[in-house]
Amino acid sequence: MRRIANIFWILFLCAGIVSLLNAIVLLLATSSPLSAMRSILALLVGLAAIPMYLCLGIDKRLPKWIFLPQLLFIFWSLFDLWPLPLMFERAHYMVPAALVQVLLGAAPLFYLKKKSGGQWLLPADMISGPFFGWKHSVTFFIANVIISPLVLGYMVFSFASIQLYEQSGGFARLWPSGLQMTEKTYRRADKEIHLTGMIHIADQAYYDQVLDSLSSDRTIVLAEGVSDEDRLLTYRFNYGNLARGLGLTSQDTLVYGGRMIAPEEMQSTTPSTPMDADYHILRADMYVKAFHPKTIEFLNIIGEQFLGSDSLAEGLHNYLTWIKKNSPEITTEEIMMDILHKRNREVIHRMRQALDHYDTIIIPWGALHMPEIEAAVLKKHFRLVESRQRTSIDFKKMLHTYRSRRGKDQK
User: How is the chain split into domains, by residue range?
Assistant: First the structure.
């Protein structure tokens, strides 16, 4: 056991030192020759952590004050040190995180060296006597059973949070307290572009805040929303049932205060022309008829089986049942191309046109659309000048409202 513990300790400390050096190099350069070594050591430490953790439950002599913090740090690293990626740029927290790893490995090392009179790592006299005890192992097992739900909850929540953050390019952040949406402002000379991450259902206060933030100085809002003149969608996308069931409000109720215009009207607007409204609104989205037939079928199923159900659980069950049955005929790439990338190209095209006619462009679209739109904004040499977060769903408030409504329904 002592040998396993010492090997793990050495690997942990070496991995921390290499990670620290690698993070420092990446602060000064775009790449580091230590990255490959860091990855290999991280893998070895992760593999060594498994038998090390089992040893802590078997061998009562092993000092847990040394190894438990190290094992917890490794577990935390497996989930990208969440929630740090949501709070800071990666380059800003990797050096402190690597420094913590080095301290967790080096501090007890020097302490034991001083205490044992010059011997490094675990001295033999510290690991003496009977190694196994039923009371110790049973206590260790019970402790693991108790904390398992918390650990599992952290794993699921952190994974979902990181995936949402990465897929939305940072425009959506999932916290234990609720869901936050980000609005970013970009500027180039006298032009501004506002990218506002949106969600189909949220607290009414969130939609009110979005409306209140709209500028009225030569502004156009490039609104989201596909047009279905040929009535190809047999089931209208109405999030009202889902929103009401959760005590929230549907984005369908969001009413802009400006004037709706057609594309040709936008192109006739000039910087010297007085605005005839607080701001203009252009539906900068696609027509349903431009979608692939399988995409249209998929959207109809979403509207019928999921959004059309009386409850969230029933809707999810119906949707998953249909997906399982029809998945061989549905190409995810085709669907994503239609509902995400093709629509992104349309709003980016309208944005480029609007730059010639307006000083401020506001794009309040779904958060998953934003990475591609943001890339197009930066390509036009705009720079980020401001970023703000708004809470779109407060979990505590939502749960309270849901319980209140459920209580009334039961009466």
Answer: 2-167, 172-410
